[in-house]
Amino acid sequence: MAEILVEVLPLALAIALSPFPVIPSIMLLLTARPVAAGAAFLGGWVAGVTAALTVAVLVSAWVELAYGTPTWVSWVRLVLGAALIAFGVRKWLTRAQATSAPAWMSSLSSATPATGAKLGLLLSGANPKILVLAAAAGLAIGAAEPALAEAAAVMVPFVLLSSLTVALPLFSYLVAGERVAPPLRRARDWLETHNAAVLAVVFMAIGLMVLIEGISGL
C-alpha cells in the first residue's frame, strides 16, 4: 500500500493547507476556555474527515467489487481534478473580494466547547472542498481492494496529516500557554487576509496532479 499512500498524502496535505479551518482553531484558543474549545474543535474535525474518507473508501471498494476496474477510476479522477482546478481558478480570480474571514467567525470569541465540536464536524464532514479531496483519496484506496489493516495503514496517516494544521495551534498553546497568543493573532490576521489566494494555489496544484493521474490511466 506504499504506492497508494504516496498517492493520497498530497490530498491530505491539501486539506491541511486550507486556511479555512485553521482560522477558527486559532480563534477558539482566544476564548474563555481555550484548551477545551480547541480540543473539541480538533475532535470534531478528525471525526468529520474520518467519516468522509471512510464513506468514500467503502463506496469505491463496493463499485470495484461489483464492476471491476475499467476506465471509471480514471474518469472520476478527471472529473475531480477538473473540479479542483476550476475551484482554484475561481478562488484566484475572486481573491480581491475575500480579504477577511466570514462574519460568523467573529462570533467565535464566546464559543463553548460544544460549539467547537459541532463546528469542527461541520467544517470537515459537510464541507464540499474537503469532501472532494476525501473522495479522491477514497477512490485510490478503495480501488486497490485492500484488507482492513492495509486500508487503516493508509487512512490513519491521511487523517493525521489532514488534521495537522488544525492541531498545531492547540499543541502550541499547550506548550507555551498565553505566550503564544500574540503569534496566533498575527497568524490569524495573515490567514484572514490571504486565505483565498492560499486556497487557490493549493487546489489548482492538487487538481492538476489528480487530473494527470486520470489522464495517464486512460
What does this protein look like?
It contains nine helices and no strands. With 218 residues, it is mainly alpha-helical. The protein has one domain. Helix 4 packs across helix 9. The longest helix is centred in the last third of the chain and has 36 residues. The mean pLDDT is 82.
Short overview:
This protein is mainly alpha-helical and 218 residues long. The protein has helices at residues 2-17, 19-27, 34-67, 72-93, 113-125, 128-143, 148-162, 164-176, 181-216. The two termini are 22 Å apart.
Approximate strand percentage: under 5%
The biggest beta sheet is recorded as: none
Number of domains: 1
Question: For the CA atoms, what is the radius of gyration?
Answer: 18 Å
The residue fraction in helices comes out at over 70%
Number of strands: 0
Q: State the shape.
A: globular
Structural class: mainly alpha
Extract low-pLDDT stretches.
Answer: none
Order of helices and strands: HHHHHHHHH
Number of helices: 9
What is the average per-residue confidence, as pLDDT, rounded to a whole number? 82
The N- and C-terminal alpha carbons lie at a distance of 22 Å
List the helices and strands and how they pair.
Blueprint: H1 2-17, H2 19-27, H3 34-67, H4 72-93, H5 113-125, H6 128-143, H7 148-162, H8 164-176, H9 181-216
Keywords:
218 residues, mainly alpha, globular
